[in-house]
């Protein structure tokens, strides 16, 4: 008897080809997931981009141990408080508000270069804390705080001033929120590695001040995604390094350079319009179009006679956010549809100091980055 070779039916052939295709796609996916995702974290100074990086470490990394909070972050938090109060007292002096000052001894101390120079790395908050607290309640200091858009002070540090009793306690351990609020200027390039869902990410945080930007070029090759952070609440503030330049104008000009750059045409671009909490507070007392640069704003205005959840006030926040978002989009890409660019432009309104707000946003960004990368590889 002869042996008869069985012939494969058309259906069996299709199933075999389909199975082989799945195997190829799986190998392609495994290869892609084995590659390193390179994320570039950009933004002008004081935008909150380093806080975004801290959130990624909290959400996907190991967070901050008590030891690190005490040894690394606590001295910096204390220094932030001293620097902020010094800036406010200097503004009191420069704006001719000294007649309003009641805590004159403490005020003179914070204006003294010699005294300020004595506050080194290890500040005794049991001694200094009550002085800062007395100044914070002073009418002259409060008046200068109302005018804070005219000088350099970090607005979110009001949360430190409101908790000086707790922070001055010798047994105080900074909370994660305290660490997120802490300003620690990025100098040069800070590289952070995170493993997220078996995918390795290298995140490059580079200094945002103008004198740091010349170092950015070293990070530009093979970037998977650019995360650009801008402080939306800073529409009435000027740069630390240039008092004639509005902070949002600076951020818009900087973003426009990158979103249209050929170097990044294969990189997804994610825009974080940050400090939305401060933005919502600010427009309660300072209408957007009260600032000359933004006189063309015609959206809803916040009404303090109505509750925050009222439709008008919710619309005022949404209109203001959308107004500034559109300012960031260069004319040459506005007509390109929802994706704006070949690799997509995505936006999020963020409060980088709020982990509950940031977690779903960072998760969404992770999915966007991975999806874009897989599409580029031909897997999707």
Automatic annotation (TrEMBL):
Residues 8-27 have a biased composition (Basic and acidic residues). Keywords: GTP-binding, Magnesium, Metal-binding, Nucleotide-binding, Transducer. It comes from the Eukaryota. Residues 1-27 are annotated as: Disordered. GO terms for biological process: adenylate cyclase-modulating G protein-coupled receptor signaling pathway. Mg(2+) binds at residues 50, 186. The keyword Metal-binding applies. GO terms for molecular function: G protein-coupled receptor binding; G-protein beta/gamma-subunit complex binding; GTP binding; GTPase activity; metal ion binding. Transmembrane segments: none annotated. This is Uncharacterized protein. It comes from Octactis speculum. The lineage of its organism: Eukaryota, Sar, Stramenopiles, Ochrophyta, Dictyochophyceae.
